[in-house]
Amino acid sequence: MTSTPREERAHMKRGLNDLVLHLHPARVDARALSFSYTFGLGGTALLLLLVQVVTGVLLMFVYRPNPADAYLSIIHLQTQVAFGQLIRNLHHWSANLLLIVVVLHLLRVFYTSAFHAPRRFNWLLGLALLGLSIAANFTGYLLPWDQLSYWAVTVGTSLLSYVPLIGDSLQHLLLGGPEVGAATLSRFYALHVMLIPLLMLLVGLYHIWRVRKDRFSRPRRVDEQESLPVQMRTTLPHLVSREGVYALVVLALVLAWATYTDAPLLQSADPAQPPDPAKAAWYFAGLQELLFHFHPSFGAFVIPALIVATLIVLPYLRDDQDRSGIWFRSVRGRWGVLLSLLLGMGAAVGLVRFSEVTSLPELLPILPEWISNGLLPLSLILLALWIYGRVLNRLGLSSGEVRMVIFTLLLAAFLVLTVVGVLRGPGMTLP
Ligand code: HEM
Ligand code: HEM
Predict the structure, then answer these.
(1) By CB atoms within 10 Å of each CB, which of 47, 135, 179, 408 scores lowest?
(2) Distance CA 286, CA 295 (A)
(3) Residues of each domain in the chain carrying CATH 1.20.810.10
(4) Does any ligand 2 atom lie closer than 6 A to the CB of residue 109?
């Protein structure tokens, strides 16, 4: 028996509704619809990933992954292929935006305390997605094979050699030889267009599924207890219509930006001629900056490893009160975060200035450099943080609030280091 067009339309609509309801619960807390809770950041990350896959597949039609042809294929794409420049611009800018959005999403989850049980494991999946987003950006960076990409990847991968014991082997494995060359390009290409997107797809789907399974955190006002009655709204159409409008606005903005701003492209890569300055990509600028102030083993390995380890254990530290869904936990927490933001920025600027005019190894020549310029300053910083935490505790902040405030201080300092790293000019001097 054949169905009428009306029955077919109804069937399709049911199919679409089913798809939506696999991704969302049937009803959501009315307040979770408020834009000022999530700022749509997780959804935006998802949308940008989709833009990357679509534009990436289109780029593959023209791009040729070997050193003799890669740069020429990009020139060909930009000048001879209809909309080629636009597709490259979209891929380039949306990749950069993705990193910013993913970090903002992490901060949203952190500052609304939405990472404790039952969402701890999803925080770890999120960290994996952040790592994959950085890896996708880094491997993509090399592909245009111009001076910018060649030297940024040379600088970026050289950081690996400071990892104790296995650093050199790790660097050799990634590069496929002693330096960036044809083997590196084919490795990065395979990672970039196959392995990393595949992993992102798998981990990303699991992450979204877990958001629903762990129950999305419930937005609360600062003075509100969990027991207040909740107003529910149906997902269709309330949530889905908002998501649709928001996605269209984000797409329109990215498209407008990509129409008017071309992705950078310098001269073809020249392994004999490093540009001045030879810098890492902006998202590694903070890390590269650490190397100016610390012994390389500490700047490139110990400190980054400490940061990653802290991010991993954060959700497993005991939370003294359930503050999930409340921005900055409490009124005290808000003031603490603001204060730490200013303090962290001030301290980082001060330490960068201090390190520019003073050399600890010269001041303390009797100590080996890994102590005078590594263990000693790091221990002093950790001691200062511990004292700061004790003072805040005495002032009445709970242990959860103290952790949040110290996290903010370190974040502010890292932001300053990133800006300083980006600002460095010829000879890596500061303006
Ligand atoms: C999270 C996902 C992705 C990110 C963050 C990302 C990032 C990047 C970046 C930063 C570049 C260098 C762009 C430039 O300045 O020219 C690039 C290039 C490229 N990407 Fe991706 N990409 C992603 C996914 C994909 C996928 C899924 C594919 C293909 C299936 C792909 C294919 C390519 C190709 C062929 C190039 C070389 C062309 C060019 O450099 O313009 N990318 N990618
Ligand atoms: C490509 C990267 C990512 C994508 C596509 C993504 C996607 C999403 C989406 C769509 C949501 C629900 C809506 C929202 O909260 O905005 C969400 C929630 C969540 N995400 Fe992510 N996410 C990513 C990275 C991360 C990172 C880096 C973290 C933290 C390390 C993280 C941790 C979480 C947690 C814990 C939730 C549940 C929040 C709650 O219940 O309030 N995600 N994610």
Answers:
(1) 179
(2) 15
(3) 22-269
(4) yes
Classify residue 324 by its DSSP letter.
Answer: T
The amino acid occupying position 89 is: N
The pLDDT-based confidence of 223 (bands split at 50, 70, 90) is confident
43 touches ligand 1 (CB under 6 Å): no
CB 293 within 8 A of CB 357: no
Q: Is 165 left (phi over 0), alpha (psi -120 to 50) or beta?
A: left
* Residue 137 CB contacts under 8 Å (≥ 6 apart), including other chains: 95, 96, 98, 99, 281, 283
Note the pLDDT tens digit of each residue in 117-144.
999 999 999 999 999 999 999 999 999 9
Residue 22 tokens read as 């696999």
Residue 61 to residue 74: CA distance in whole angstroms:
11
Q: What is the pLDDT of residues 135-169, one digit of tens each?
A: 999 999 999 999 999 999 999 999 888 888 899 99
**Quick check: 405 and 395 in contact, CB under 8 A?**
no
Instruction: Please return the burial class of 355, using the count of CB atoms within 10 Å of its CB with bins 0-12, 13-18 and 19+.
Output: middle
The residue among 109, 269, 291 whose CA lies nearest residue 188 is 269
Neighbouring C-alpha atoms within 13 Å toward the C-beta of 9: 3
- The DSSP secondary-structure symbol of 426 reads G
Q: pLDDT at position 21, please?
A: 67
CA of 169 to the centre of ligand 1 (A): 27
228 pLDDT band, cuts 50/70/90, is low
Which CATH architecture best describes the domain 22-269? Up-down Bundle (1.20)
